[in-house]
Amino acid sequence: MKKFTLVALVAVIFITGCAQSTEPAHEHEHNVHEKPMQPTLEYTIGSDDWSVVTTMTESPEVLEAYQFAVSHPEVLNYMPCYCGCYEEDGHTSNTNCFVENVENGIATLDTMGFG
To answer: In which element (H, E) is residue 107 found?
Structure first.
C-alpha cells in the first residue's frame, strides 16, 4: 500500500507541475514577450506554515505536491519535466517546477506547480 501511495503522490506531483492552463493568454498591445511579475513565495522549512500556498490555491493536491517537493527533492531531482520549462525557465527537473531555490532555511517556491 505504501508503494502505491508513493507512486500516486509522485504522479500527482508530475501532473500538477506540468499542467498547462486551458485559459487563453491575455496579451497587451505592447510588451507581448514580457512575462508577468510572479509573486515571491517563501516557505520557512520546518515551520509547517503553508499559508503561502493556501492563499494561492484551495487544492489539497497542490498543497501536498509542494510539501512533497520541499521535503523530498531527492526524489523529484530524477524526474524530468516535459512541459518546456527547461527552455523558458531553465528547469532541470520536476523539483524546479515547485522549488526555485533553498537558502538559509527558506525555500523560494516556483509558481509553476499551481498550473
So the answer is: strand 106-109
Strand order of the β-sheet with 106-109 is: 41-44, 106-109, 99-103
Write the DSSP symbol of residue 19: -
Are the beta carbons of 9 and 16 closer than 8 angstroms? no
Indicate the pLDDT class of residue 27, thresholds 50, 70 and 90: very low
CA dihedral for 104, 63, 114, 41, sign (positive or negative)? negative
Joined together, the cell numbers standing for residue 20 give 498547462
110, 97 Cβ separation under 8 angstroms: yes
Domain boundary assignment for the chain: 2-18+41-114
Q: What is the mean pLDDT of the chain?
A: 76
* CB contact at 8 A, 113 and 65: yes
Residue 17: per-residue pLDDT: 57
pTM: 0.65
